[in-house]
């Protein structure tokens, strides 16, 4: 065995014996074994054998401009030579201040303050703690958070309390705080037979009926704007998001927009909130904030929320929260370069032909004997696989069909991930029309293997 082959064998051994992978049944992992990604080039991932795979899921919905983008890489290197890390507790540094201004300039509504963290779940945790303390600082004890079934807001205990995906969250229910969980907009439409364009009317009536009975106890309403991502790419009927904002105003409730997955162009605009002219009280950002290059997240809020924390020290209104790597300068430099690429390459403005091509391909899957529901919002799409779509019969959980399709598609040079039996398509925004064709052609071949 040559030196390179020996090293690969060692890596495999170390992975299988020491590395616990997220969202992974390790008993299955030992059976299938690891695929080692060694490099990234543009919209492709390259394994240790030199095989190339189109990154059809943006390295977990994070990569925006492709791998190895020179402007972002150069910014990371330059900043690392100057300062790798310095705390924001009692100090500041240029990248954090510069990025704060840049984010406020593009944010929806009237957001004026930025609080950094390292991941989307942390940005949500910060938003819920800010919301709770906002009311406490004004002498009100509001403990109820309104959230949606099939929602996902990260895997911290606070985020899980706000989440609504039983597969992920049910086991932790005894540890969680009380919430008011309302129907998923998409599933409400799907179950109720309401016209898509008017589904919001009945849905918002239900929301208001639930909210008004406990409005004085409600701290905030958290929502993934326009599409619930981890719930299986579940888009909202029009005007639901706008209606939620109006209900929050009517009943004096804070609105938290979790745009960790939907932000930075994923739905066709820089932020999903912009499509219905909604300005939240708190905005959670992550994933694409650095273009997918380094861990960074941010919670943005308004003067109204910020001012509730101002006072003399002995009043104890301070927001006592922070992480060691909050606002890391190298990550902030990457985020600044990412925003420059958005502007210079007019990334969002270039998306329409790509979105239309994805829509065209999705239509081609309708009527497939193993395809049920098909969902899309901008560059986010999901194809639900079913044993009997006409009869509405899903595959048995034991068959692991979504996973099998995602393993099969690797043979055709594409990486995808599934949510149960929903195959998720969320490529980098930099994907070309030709690469979209490659992705969906490969997916069709992989799904057709189910018939074989």
List the helices and strands and how they pair.
Elements lengths: L2 H16 L7 H7 L4 E5 L2 E4 L4 E4 L2 H4 L8 H13 L11 H13 L4 E7 L2 H17 L7 E5 L8 H6 L3 H4 L9 E4 L2 H8 L6 H14 L5 E6 L3 E2 L5 E2 L4 H11 L3 E5 L23 E4 L11 E6 H5 L21 H16 L7 H14 L5 E7 L2 E6 L15 H8 L5 E2 L1 E3 L2 E4 L7 H19 L1
Parallel strand pairs: 3-15, 5-6, 5-7, 7-10, 10-11
Antiparallel strand pairs: 1-2, 2-3, 4-12, 8-9, 11-12, 13-14, 14-17, 16-17
Report on the structure:
- The protein is α/β, with parallel strands linked by helices.
- It folds into 2 domains: 35-64 and 348-451, Aspartate Aminotransferase, domain 1 (Alpha-Beta Complex); 71-344, 3-Layer(aba) Sandwich (Aspartate Aminotransferase, domain 2).
- Helix content is 39%, strand content 17%.
- It has a 7-stranded mixed beta sheet with strand order 4-12-11-10-7-5-6, with helices on both faces.
Which keywords apply here?
452 residues; globular; 17 strands; Aspartate Aminotransferase, domain 1; Aspartate Aminotransferase, domain 2; seven-stranded mixed β-sheet; four-stranded mixed β-sheet; 2 domains; alpha/beta
CATH superfamily of the largest domain: Type I PLP-dependent aspartate aminotransferase-like (Major domain)
Provide the CATH top-level class of the largest domain: Alpha Beta
How many structural domains does the protein architecture include? Answer: 2
Q: Might you state the CATH topology name of the largest domain?
A: Aspartate Aminotransferase, domain 2
Query: How many distinct helices?
Result: 16
Shape: globular
Share of residues in strands = 15-25%
Distance between the termini: 37 Å
Ranges where pLDDT stays below 50 over 5 or more residues in a row are none
| Average pLDDT, all residues | 96
Largest sheet, described in full?
7 strands, mixed
Radius of gyration: 22 Å
Gross CATH architecture of the largest domain? 3-Layer(aba) Sandwich
Q: How are the strands ordered across the major sheet?
A: 4-12-11-10-7-5-6
Helix content: 25-40%
Structural class: alpha/beta
**Number of β-strand runs:** 17
């Amino acid at each position: 065995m040559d030196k390179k082959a020996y090293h690969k064998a060692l890596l495999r051994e170390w992975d299988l014996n020491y590395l616990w992978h997220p969202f992974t049944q390790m008993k299955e992992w030992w059976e299938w074994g690891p695929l080692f990604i060694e490099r990234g080039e543009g919209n492709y991932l390259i394994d240790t054998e030199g095989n190339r795979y189109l990154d059809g899921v943006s390295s977990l919905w994070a990569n925006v401009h492709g791998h190895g983008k020179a402007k972002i890489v150069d910014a990371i290197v330059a900043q690392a030579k100057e300062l790798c890390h310095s705390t924001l507790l009692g100090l500041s540094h240029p990248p954090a201040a510069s990025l704060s201004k840049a984010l406020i300039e593009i944010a929806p509504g009237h957001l004026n303050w930025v609080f950094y963290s390292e991941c989307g779940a942390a940005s949500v945790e910060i938003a819920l703690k800010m919301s709770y303390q906002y009311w406490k600082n004004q002498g009100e004890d509001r403990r109820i958070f309104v959230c949606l079934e099939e929602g996902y807001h990260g895997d911290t205990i606070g985020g899980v309390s706000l989440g609504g995906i039983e597969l992920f969250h049910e086991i932790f229910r005894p540890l969680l705080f009380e919430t008011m969980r309302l129907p998923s907009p998409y599933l409400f439409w799907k179950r109720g037979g309401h016209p898509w364009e008017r589904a919001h009317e009945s849905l918002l009536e239900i929301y208001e009926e639930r909210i008004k009975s406990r409005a004085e106890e409600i701290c905030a309403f958290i929502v993934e704007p326009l599409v619930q991502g981890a719930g299986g790419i579940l888009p909202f009927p029009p005007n639901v998001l706008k209606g939620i904002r109006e209900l929050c105003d009517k009943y004096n409730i804070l609105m938290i927009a979790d745009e960790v997955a939907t932000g930075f162009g994923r739905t066709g605009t820089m932020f999903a909130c912009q499509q219905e002219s909604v300005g939240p009280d708190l905005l959670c950002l992550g994933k694409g904030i650095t273009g997918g290059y380094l861990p960074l997240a941010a919670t943005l809020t308004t003067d109204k929320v910020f001012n509730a924390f101002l006072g003399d020290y002995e009043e104890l209104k301070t927001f006592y929260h922070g992480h060691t790597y909050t606002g890391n300068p190298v990550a902030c430099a990457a985020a600044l370069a990412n925003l420059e690429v958005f502007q210079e390459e007019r990334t969002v403005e270039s998306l329409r032909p790509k979105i239309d091509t994805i829509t065209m391909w999705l239509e081609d899957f309708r009527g497939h004997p193993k395809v049920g529901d098909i969902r899309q919002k901008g560059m986010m799409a999901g194809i639900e696989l079913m044993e009997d779509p006409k009869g509405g019969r899903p595959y048995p959980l034991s068959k692991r069909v979504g996973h099998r399709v995602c393993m099969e598609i690797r043979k055709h040079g594409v990486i995808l991930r599934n949510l149960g039996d929903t195959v998720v398509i969320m490529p980098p925004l930099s994907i070309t029309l030709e690469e979209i064709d490659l992705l969906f052609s490969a997916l069709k071949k992989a799904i057709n293997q189910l018939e074989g």
